[in-house]
Amino acid sequence: MPTLLHLDSSADLHHSVSRALTARFADTWAGISDDHVVVRRDLHVDPLPHLPTSALHWAPRLRTPEEVVPADAEALQKLLVDELLNADAVVIGAPMYNYSVPSTLKAWIDYVHIGGVTATMGEPVTEPLAGKPVVVVSSRGATYGPGAPGEAVDHEIPSIVQVLGTSMRMDVVPVTTDLTLATRLPALHEFAGRAADDLQKASDAMVELARRFGTR
Ligand SMILES: Cc1cc2nc3c(=O)[nH]c(=O)nc-3n(C[C@H](O)[C@H](O)[C@H](O)COP(=O)(O)O)c2cc1C
């Protein structure tokens, strides 16, 4: 059963661009065959608690004697890691909040990035997620593409690529859609056409990527 893990983190339950795009991805995935499964986790509606202890950043064998983890936190971490391991592909709705990821998504990342489990921390090499595709949908109010004034302050995509890609060895595919505030902010009205083009491209990319990763 080809399984998609579908994560959202937008705090907007009515007009969210990233939610619409990840839903398009998930619908395309589910439509490929009756066997295609979608596992859904809404990090905004059901937020994870912050890490109760830094010990969760380490595999049990790498913890110091004082690093004791509460059983419920250990169980939650195992659930989240298992969801990731069992998925054939992942789609993440990652709206830009204050130049970075929403704190709800950051909490999920803090749980699943574990030295000696999902990331190599010395010997042996531990990269069970190597090559797993993860499509990251970054919706943002302004513009951060190559050459844009905001390019240098996009602290979202680079940090996700660093953690999920460089450290956890996943195959990160960023899909961005810029100027989502063009219809809301008068100062950005003139960019409404560009915003619409961007959104259409991102929407088309959802269908193409879901088919690509769902049929390989
Ligand atoms: C808390 C918060 C912080 C935001 N910070 C930024 C920002 O740093 N840069 C930006 O371009 N837009 C920012 N925005 C606008 C959102 O990125 C934009 O509305 C985007 O479409 C949100 O994704 P969504 O439509 O999936 O909810 C922010 C919005 C919120 C609610």
UniProtKB/TrEMBL annotation:
Its cofactor is FMN. It is an enzyme of class 1 (oxidoreductase). It catalyses: N,N-dimethyl-1,4-phenylenediamine + anthranilate + 2 NAD(+) = 2-(4-dimethylaminophenyl)diazenylbenzoate + 2 NADH + 2 H(+); 2 a quinone + NADH + H(+) = 2 a 1,4-benzosemiquinone + NAD(+). GO terms for molecular function: oxidoreductase activity. FMN binds at S10, S16, V17, S18. The keyword tRNA processing does not apply. It comes from the Bacteria. Residues 3-177 form the Flavodoxin-like fold domain. HAMAP family: Azoreductase_type1. Homodimer. Belongs to the azoreductase type 1 family. Also exhibits azoreductase activity. Catalyzes the reductive cleavage of the azo bond in aromatic azo compounds to the corresponding amines. This is FMN dependent NADH:quinone oxidoreductase. It comes from Kineosporia succinea. The lineage of its organism: Bacteria, Bacillati, Actinomycetota, Actinomycetes, Kineosporiales.
